[in-house]
Design a protein that fits this description.
Largest sheet: 6 strands, mixed
Number of helices: 5
Distance between the termini: 8 Å
Order of helices and strands: HEEEHEHEEEHEHEE
Helix content: 25-40%
Length: 205
Amino acid sequence: GRGRLFRNVHTHVFSDRGPKKPYSADIEDALYDIRKAQPEDTVMVFLSGHGLTPTENDFLFITRDAKRRGDNTYRMGSVLKWGSIQNVMGRIRARRIILLDTCHSGGVDMTDLAKKGYDLNMVVFASSKGSQTSQERKDLKNGYFTYAILKGLGKGLPADTLKDGTVEITELSSYVRAEVRKLTGKQTPTLTLPPGQDGFPFFRR
């Protein structure tokens, strides 16, 4: 947070339960603001919701205003396309982190998305691998992946396995992977780091 790892933190939060709803145009505008990031900055995009892969080279995030066509496919102007994120993130030199907790709806291929992130020298932390579907439980009000991240960074900082007050991205990945596997029995979160990078501080209390 601000004053610990970063001097300032700028956020755009879109949520069905918040004042700013996840409409595609508003998310696109927020992504446009990311282009101001400098090399010493860290940019994080966290998508939690429903995604699908209509083709092996595409990924769509289903926004609040998504509209279907007569053939039951989505109108491209009403959803958030992976290319929109990829184009913005590829233009900046900041550290780039994408967190993906996209639940079932078409079996999003997280391995394919991780490869796309790897090619762009980005960090991609995804809720599942390959053709696995990301599971959610209504009483948790989140997918298991998001729940595990919040738990790991919450009271007592369980993800801080070294007990030094700082959670490295690899510590968080290990904690979340174990927690999600324990809760689901099979779902396996995946972390892809850029070539030559072993990790970096993700959270400091």
